[in-house]
Amino acid sequence: MTNLSIPRLILILTALTLTTPLVHGAGSGSMPSGGGATGGTSQAPRKTPQQMAVSSYNAGLNHKKRAQEYEAKAVTAKNDQDRAKQLAKAKSQYEDAVDDYRKAIGYDKTAYQAMNELGYAYRKSGDYENAVRAYNSALLVKPDFAPAIEYRGEAYLALSMFKDVKEAYLVLFGADQDQAATLMRAMEAWQVLHQGDPAPEVKAFSDWVVERKAVAANTQSLSMNNVHAWN
């Protein structure tokens, strides 16, 4: 991230923790009692735009957490009606998360983590085109942000933009093996859903996924052999 002061950099980097809501430090609460405020009352100091961005970002993460809880319930639902009900609740939470992430970005135009999460919330809501736009925004701020590259790859996959999916995977394969593996799992799940599809482009992409999976397995095997050779 460019042109950030050290405290602001620490604040934004802290926001990268996706599973734990961020808590801004000193200065975000009310003034100490007896602080000499006029009329014997105290007044909370105004938050900075960066503090407001983190607050909105954390609110979005809370909605994301609740959405994922509903998704988990949908997996174990006893019938289609209950499953649909849980998924509808999840979608509503993702839509609320969209609002919060947009607020965070409004307060801080460089908050690439919020842009990335905005893309995720859009994608989980089924709005793949806006998801891609959000990921693009995150990558304009931080071009090497692997989570956004992976998430965008999944959005491309949903849009059948196979050339872009391939490019995303190859970038991740060379830069971040964990994220590459995550995208590979998404592509494998896509294969299961499209088994028997006669479209030539679908079959061609499916064949490519099989080839890349073999390459990844061979690469991993070679890496392990090299480790053993040095032990």
* Low-pLDDT residue spans: 1-38
Number of DSSP helices? 9
Structural class: mainly alpha
Helix content: over 70%
Domain count: the total is: 2
Give the oligomeric state of the chains in this entry, treating copies of one chain as homo and distinct chains as hetero: single chain
- CATH class of the largest domain, anyone? Mainly Alpha
Mean pLDDT: 84
Number of strands: 0
Using the coordinates shown, work out and report the CATH topology of the largest domain.
Serine Threonine Protein Phosphatase 5, Tetratricopeptide repeat
- Write down the overall geometry: globular
N- and C-termini, Cα separation: 39 Å
Q: What does the largest sheet look like?
A: none
Write down the secondary-structure element order.
HHHHHHHHH
Superfamily at the CATH H level of the largest domain?
Tetratricopeptide repeat domain
Rg value: 22 Å
| CATH architecture descriptor of the largest domain | Alpha Horseshoe
